[in-house]
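Extended Data, panel c. Modelled sequence:
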Amino acid sequence: MNWDQIQGKWKQMKGTVRQKWAKLTDDDLEYIAGNREHFAGRLQERYGIAKEEAERQLDEWTKGVTEPTMSEARASESRPKY
């Protein structure tokens, strides 16, 4: 998937993001809203990593991410908010 697709399907993608980066909060995910720059910034903050490392992780994740299935999308949307 490319970033335009990720941004357009952000609500469905939150579940896969949460699986990989568990330190991101619901507020973080709302703030990111599929924006790559915001995403990299929050990864830097939450994980204490350099910008280059955050970008590398996003590139790696983007290569492996596929469109979420309907069951994944429903599970992501039905998670309780803390």
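Confidence is low (pLDDT under 50) at residues 69-73. This feature is highlighted in the accompanying rendering.
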